[in-house]
Amino acid sequence: MRLDPFSDTYNRNPAATWKRILNSGQLVGYDLDLKLWLIAGHDNVRTVLSDPVRFSNAATLFPVRPVSPAAGAVLAGIDAPNVAVSADAPQHSRIRALLRHVFPNTATRAEQQWGDLVTRRAEQIADELADADAVDLVDEVAVRFALPVILDVLGLPADNAADIRGWTDAFKDLVWGDPTDGAQLDAARGSVALWHYCTHVVDQRVATGDDGPGLVGDLLRYRAGDDARLSLPEAAALVLNLLGAGWETTAGALGHALEHALVQPERWDRLAHDEHYRATHIEETLRYAPVVDGWLRLTTTDVTIDGVTIPAGSRCLLLLGTANHDPDVFPDPDAFHPARADLSQHVAFGYGAHYCIGAALARLELATMLRVLAQRLPGLRLGPDYVRRFVPNMSLHNHTAMPALTNGGRCPIARSEPARTQ
Ligand code: HEM
Prior knowledge:
By secondary structure, the chain is an alpha+beta fold.
């Protein structure tokens, strides 16, 4: 089996590759180039995600490409313990219970805790775009929104946003990208800087005796000085996990949602005023174009799946995109169809023990930004020079850029509408 995730073909339209794999009849196989087992199809992907014992998370954050000795030496400076996405039971069960306690993970709780701050950030961006004629929806909307929101949520100052963006981009490229040796070294330095930032944030709050605002403060209050509940390195590693997982994903998903909305003006109109449509548009975006479309597991024993035996100690890439385009679950999978019946079956946020803890926050962010932007810029359209291309990466698919025109279509009354009442 072959994925070729760094090719131009894949970076323009990964769905064509998913279709090829799904039609080939071979859904589990070894990719000689990537040196990874590929697992495709809705049944197979869900089976693996439901089995954290035989499919471990321990190597989800290890670089997929061989690391050069120089980059490896730098990376040795990261002594973060495994928490959340890189932990297995029993460690994972303890951390997950803690996250359930401190992290609002239902729509209602997310809205109560973060609704105001998310709306404020969305309106601030809409205000800043008020006089623009042209805009890059990636840099000026998706990133500019999702990164400050996660900093607000964690209770971290916005001053470090540019550094954090650079470090998390570096980490993403190092783990799931295809960097050159030189880029690998820079990415390793950036990843170490990110880890040092997270440990510094935690150490500083402990040193001042003030747990402080946001989720970082909630983690420290939950810890209550007890290492058995949560050690300080674990707290720092959770900050790293949440920073790493919390903004590129949402920014990427927002890019996909905007693209699918702007190709048809009637979709854009409905996003402004139709709450039900907005929710289904978001779910169909997550199904059709899952921003995390490949995710890693490590076998702990020989496992036979779909008739193929994968040896113990193998790294596997779960092709979430193929699960979401499996015609056995989603009829006519290559059509963008928000009214489809089985939307809840998509695996864009994973499934089972590691199901995304930030799903409710991400949905809140997407719904808020889409509503505010569609109300305030009803004339927004993709620019004539827009060509879809993603940053090369085998896990996350974020658009490189998305030029759009506002068409002077500002709505003079939208600003005074109640924020979340439709
Ligand atoms: C559209 C946006 C997002 C997508 C598509 C997404 C996707 C995912 C996926 C596929 C997983 C499962 C990983 C696995 O099975 O190993 C996951 C886990 C996780 N996500 Fe998200 N995510 C998004 C937003 C967020 C946000 C906003 C946060 C936090 C602020 C977050 C934090 C996490 C964490 C901590 C985990 C690990 C949970 C665990 O291992 O128990 N994610 N996410």
